[in-house]
Design a protein that fits this description.
The complex is a heterodimer of chains A (560) and B (160). With 560 residues, chain A is an alpha+beta fold. Chain A has 18 helices and 19 strands. Among the domains of chain A are: 1-68, no CATH class; 225-307, no CATH class; 338-402 and 458-550, no CATH class; 404-453. Chain B is an alpha+beta fold. Classes of the chains: A alpha+beta (560), B alpha+beta (160). Chain B: It comes from Natrinema versiforme JCM 10478.
Chain lengths: 560, 160
């Protein structure tokens, strides 16, 4: 089928031309400034000539970029060609696409535009970004790509069953294959076509289309206002601290004045220049409390805006989500690309009986969260647990805990941290007017509870088809890893662990979440148990792969 | 279990010698500049410094020898299995199905020593890619070929 080439929305031409124009305008400006300070013969006046030239060149480049940027949906791939001076064309096979995201900013929503990004597993950046297509086009793309991805999968599955039916014939078939290894997909296509005699490709397509029209998008979960509020107030992200720094950088003087004014009633200094050691201490304390409070408010506000009207639905075998108050994000995650499922909760959420559910993929999303998406930001713990069980098919986990020996390790570890804190206080007392440094020894009181809390929240469960790993007190994460998603298994023993006969087992998946969350690891279990988990994981991976080759047991999309 | 080529110890010792030189430079620089920055008397006899660097280098040699003793790998039924690590001992299994591609590499020092490395890439965390250093170029090539064949043989339909 001849593919039809598409251009971006014409507004993109204006945006690109302006953007490049401004770049073209500012570049001569900066260069002339720098050069005129270095060389005498360069005159600042040159900017008035060069800047307009730069602007025109930039606008020309932007327009050229717009006209040279095309994309097309073909039978097997999504194609993007771009580049003004050197053309780059990229073909993304549907089978490799991890997720398709659509983002709409405030201005873009007013203009009826959207940004579509397409993620695959490879590389650290988005595979293709269509900056500004019309909203209708964005929806069409999302739907079309999803449908074609599903079709590829369907074809593959049919080919597999055909192969399984052929039985012994496949062995000889692969041996005589002229190009082994690289062409299973192509071979699949031919067998699929052969297995459906009498059906022309076009007839196939119309059948798919009607099928798609029938399977309307179905809602799985919607975040209720109460849950949204709870989520905003009970989630803490350190990134909000960056917002605080930004605020401070923008308006440092009024903030300093405010902090001094607030601290004064408690015994803070009257001005920044005049004050005693004690009053500075109070100022620091009050400022810290203020900073924490403001960070909390910023964080709550951000979460509220980002997750406003969160909705999760399914369309065929994909999850589709939508969220955001001003900037509306929507995206789709193919269920069979999910690497692991994680339940998160913090102490406050545990106290209230709530938790969140995340699905992890290998893609890279528009946010730093990578390909993982919040499937359910916050819901009742029992509901979340049921979702996770329905989604992955894991049995209710009976967690095993590391031996109490592990707790002793944490006790020692935290005692060392406490000793370092006391040492720092001692050091400060030597060089400053700080008195009673030994009061810092109070941190030792926190050591036993901290070690105990870390210990009790550790757990692991070796299930029939899944490994479940739980760690963390402040941000507890319970990760469900299907055996067939395991990439590598490592047993690690530090010198301290070796002395105690303990080991940690790290189970790596392709989830891009491992960058920020770390590789899922079962910490400090008996070496024997570690070996057993290691071996079982390996065996079960092989078993699961064989089973999957027979019948496609994936994740169940209807998990609610 | 297969061990690495003994010459890899030379490479690791050379590496720790380089680290020792850097340490010596850093110590000398510290002694030169620290008194200017802080009103602290920081006078260390050159002999003590030399001793410190020598001890660091000695530890580096012991580390290299120990690492060589510990480093082992094996091609098992379903996976490439490796054991390594002096401070933290790590046993890793890389199932053949999960091998994305296999490289052989060698740097300038490795080339001088007549050694080569095999790097096995998986779709897992990018920093966890597995490297087997200290192989003869022939062994590296044959290992690469074997791994590639095994990976193709056990290819899964949907690795990621």
């Amino acid at each position: 089928m001849p593919s039809e080439m598409n251009r971006l929305h014409s507004f993109s031409a204006v945006a690109m031309a302006l953007q490049r124009g401004v770049t073209g305008l500012s570049m001569p400006f900066f260069f002339v400034m720098i050069l005129s300070s270095l060389f005498d013969f360069v005159d600042v006046g040159w900017t008035f000539v060069l800047a307009p030239i730069g602007f025109v060149a930039g606008v020309g480049y932007g327009l050229a970029y717009y006209y040279r940027f095309t994309y097309a949906i073909t039978d097997d791939t999504f194609d993007v060609t771009s580049g003004v001076f050197s053309q780059r064309s990229r073909e993304i096979p549907y089978g490799r696409i991890q997720n398709v995201d659509v983002a709409r900013g405030v201005l873009q929503r007013v203009l009826g535009l959207a940004v579509v990004s397409i993620e695959t597993a490879g590389g650290g950046e988005t595979e293709a970004t269509l900056r500004f297509v019309s909203e209708a086009e964005a929806n069409r793309l999302q739907r079309d790509i999803r449908r074609r991805t599903a079709a590829v999968k369907q074809r593959r599955r049919e080919a597999d069953s055909a192969e399984a039916g052929a039985g012994t014939a496949t062995d000889t078939g692969t041996d005589s294959d002229p190009s082994p290894g690289s062409s299973p997909a192509r071979a699949d296509d031919t067998t699929a076509a052969a297995s459906e005699p009498g059906q022309t490709p076009s007839a196939d397509r119309t059948r798919e289309e009607t099928q798609y029209a029938d399977s309307r998008r179905k809602q799985l979960f919607a975040l209720e206002p109460r849950e949204l509020l709870l989520y905003s107030l009970s989630s803490f992200r350190p990134a909000a601290g960056a917002g605080l720094l930004f605020l401070f950088a923008v308006a440092s003087d009024p903030i300093l004045d405010y902090l001094i004014a607030v601290a004064q009633p408690f015994g803070g200094p009257a001005a920044l220049e005049s004050g005693s050691v004690g009053s500075y201490g109070i100022l620091t304390l009050v400022s810290m409390i203020n900073a924490i409070a403001v960070t909390y408010v910023l964080n709550a506000g951000y979460t509220f805006i980002a997750y406003y009207d969160f909705q999760l639905g399914r369309a065929d075998e994909d999850f589709v989500y939508e969220r955001g108050l001003f900037q509306r994000y929507s995206g789709s995650v193919p269920a069979d690309k999910i690497q692991a499922v994680t339940i998160t909760d913090n102490p406050l959420q545990r106290l209230l009986g709530y938790a969140g559910l995340w699905v992890e993929t290998a893609g890279y999303g528009p946010e730093s969260s990578g390909g993982s998406q919040s499937a359910v930001p916050l819901a009742d713990t029992s509901r979340i647990r049921r979702f996770a069980e329905n989604l992955t098919g894991v049995e209710p986990p009976q967690f095993r805990r590391p031996p109490t020996l592990a707790r002793r390790r944490y006790l020692v570890r935290y005692a060392i941290v406490a000793a370092v804190i006391v040492a720092i206080a001692f050091g400060l007392a030597q060089v400053s007017a700080l008195e009673r440094w030994y009061v810092a020894a109070i941190v030792f009181a926190a050591v036993p509870p901290a070690a105990h809390l870390k210990y009790v929240h550790l757990g692991y469960f070796v299930g029939e088809d899944h490994l479940v790993i739980r760690t963390g007190f402040w941000k507890r994460r319970t990760t469900v890893i299907p055996y067939y998603r395991i990439q590598t298994v490592s047993t690690r023993r530090s010198i301290f662990q070796r002395r105690l006969g303990l080991a940690s087992v790290a189970v790596d998946t392709a989830s891009s979440r491992t960058f920020s969350w770390g590789t899922p690891t079962i910490y400090d279990i008996d070496l024997e148990d570690a070996r057993r988990v290691h071996d079982r994981s390996r065996e079960n991976l092989q078993v699961a792969l064989r089973d999957r080759a027979r019948d496609d047991l994936g994740l169940s999309v209807d998990f609610t | 279990m297969e061990s690495l080529h003994p010459r890899i110890r030379l490479l690791w010792i050379a590496r720790s010698a380089l680290a020792a030189v850097l340490l010596a430079v850093a110590l000398v620089a510290l002694e030169q500049w620290l008194p200017a920055l802080l009103p602290v008397d920081f006078a260390v006899p050159p002999a003590a410094m030399a001793a410190g660097v020598a001890v660091a280098f000695g530890l580096g040699i012991i580390y290299a020898v120990r690492l060589y003793q510990v480093w082992q790998f094996e091609l098992q039924d379903d996976a490439l299995y490796l054991e390594r690590g002096v401070v933290t001992f790590v046993e890793t299994a890389v199932p053949f199905v999960r091998v994305q591609h296999v490289d052989t590499q060698f740097g300038p020092v490795e080339r001088v020593l007549g050694l080569s490395s095999v790097v096995v890439y998986t779709a897992g965390s990018r920093n966890a890619d597995v490297r087997i250093p200290g192989l003869t170029p022939d062994r590296a090539r044959s290992l690469q070929n074997t791994l590639r064949e095994l990976a193709v043989e056990s290819e899964a339909e949907d690795a990621v």
